[in-house]
Amino acid sequence: MWGGRAGTGPRMSESTENLSCFVLNCTLKASPAESSSELLGSQVLSAFADLGVRGAAARVVDHDVRFGVSTDEGDGDAWPALRRQVLDADILVLVTPIWMGQPSSVAKMVLERLDAELSETDDEGRLLTFGKVAGVGVVGNEDGAHHVSAELFQALSDVGFTVPAQGVTYWVGEAMQAVDYKDVSPTPDATAGTTQVLARHAVHLARLLTQAPYPAGD
After folding, report:
1. Any residues with CB less than 8 A from the CB of 87 and at least 6 apart, and which?
2. Cα separation, 31 vs 78, whole angstroms
3. Which residue, among 84, 113, 72, has the nearest Cα to 22 in the 3D structure?
4. pTM across the whole model
5. Cα–Cα distances in angstroms (integers) from residue 63 to residues 78, 152, 167, in the given order
6. In a domain, 165, yes or no
7. I want to staple 37 with a disulfide (CB 3.0 to 4.6 A). Which of 20, 27, 52, 187 is the partner?
8. CA atoms within 13 Å, Cβ hemisphere of 138
């Protein structure tokens, strides 16, 4: 977890060499179960680390996140701690498996919790997510990577994140088969390449936004 920056909105660290990334893994599998989403998320973090970006990750299902659309649903809700990590980071990457052609139910719950950011602003009327970059990772052994990324891109943009060009990395296996990404070795060149592009473009955009934040509201 990174301290001292949550709630500052566009006023992020002035150092463009001190960026951070947080990966929210929306697998349905709790730790320590093996997870293709976990593997892709770790590869995403490695790609950012190669660019000098600090990183951290969390499996949402390992935390008692409640259903709701507020920043804190009370009664031991674990979302506020995860939200703090989201707001402390310059770059958020949501990684989700595909189920029945859709983002996981966990990913949809995360989007519902992020909806609360529409009511959270800084002293100049900007959303706290303005100036933050979001990317997506998708894995599955069925079709749907483009549909899933489109759903996540739209929602993340709605709540204030900025999405870079080609801001998704994904792998989909042959439809109606049982091979998972975690069982594929070596990592396919196409997926490794898109992971590198996601990291490069997200870092480029995050650096630009530290230098030129979005304008304040009226």
Report:
1. 5, 6, 7, 128, 129, 132
2. 16
3. 84
4. 0.90
5. 6, 21, 26
6. yes
7. 27
8. 26
